[in-house]
Write a structure and sequence with these properties.
CATH architecture of the largest domain: 3-Layer(aba) Sandwich
Number of strands: 13
Number of domains: 2
Radius of gyration: 21 Å
Shape: globular
CATH topology of the largest domain: Alkaline Phosphatase, subunit A
Structural class: alpha/beta
Strand content: 15-25%
Largest sheet: 8 strands, mixed
Amino acid sequence: MGVGDMALHLLLEGLMAEGDPAMEEVCPTVDRLAAHGDTGRLFLCQGERLPEEGGCWFTYFGQQQGVREADLPTGFFAALGAGLAPDPQQTWAMLSFTNLYRKQDKLLFLSPLRTGQSVEECQALADGLAEEFAAEGWQVITHPHSTTLFCHSSQRFNVRTTPLAILEGEDSFIHLPTGEDYRPIHQLLTIGQLLMARHPVNTTRKLAGRLPLNTPWLQGIAPGPAMMVTGKKQGVCWCQDLLVAGLAKAAGMRVNLLPEGEALPALPLDEIADQAAHGLAVVHLQGPAVLARHQMTTERLELLARMDQEIFSTLGQELATRQTSLTLITPSPLTAKGLGSNAPACWLTVEGKAMGKDRRFWNRRRFGEGELLDMGALTDRWQ
């Protein structure tokens, strides 16, 4: 077995951002590990796509990103991650809810994090949309443990959508779905707005002084991939994101879903280290990126400091004891607004025997300073 077969791969969104202090101040353990292992940059995303579309994780798990003029099939893979059995011949989409508010002559988005919506509220709203959506050819499917829901249609749509996660404070007119088949999607969103305006969930929210969930949002509108790669990775994946869960399942991994709303969910570190000692363990976390998108810089840096102690340091000791390697991959450094950039991702790989070493003054290597590789070249290094 190679390094890639018995290892921990930590996929962390939001580790680096414009204006951050040096890594040795933010995450000193990461800085030390980079000094004793291999590190560099990595091509993961196609430049024309928004990093938040998830293309980097398509690349990591071995799936093709398809044509750049259409949505990635994130709805299909997220449905797979949610435990559904999505028909790849159908068009799938993720269905979410948000608040649109007026500011001067614009209608601006609030992110789901700021609206404070519950799973029960989202399920009730989806039930209220089901009949009218069905008349337009879409079937709505709820999920018992997530505020992200799904819908699917037998029709094909060539559209591009924007992930709701990055629309905080953005003008709704600018970010409406585009593409040659945008009109029926716009019609569906309008129908949803009319129904949600008088839904009992929003009546209750208003009486309680809470913002109404007045707008549905669809993203990842695409059928399943024509050539889905399966069985590429064996092992166990712990993740918060349904898209990552679906990509991991398609690749052949067993998935343990973590609570989606927690910045730092409780991780079974012993179990993860044991899995890494006998096969591949993958852990995906996105809390720092979520905080960055909401301009919560102080909270994000505090979270990374906690991760440095509670994950990198503690888990590094567990892996060192088991003589198991660690690979850390973080997507492109975030911009000052907390959004992904087109810069390459950063990675490091360190063997278990080197994890306990202290940094010395002659250890000049810094995280992300090294070769620029593609995923195939990095995978070759693990063999």
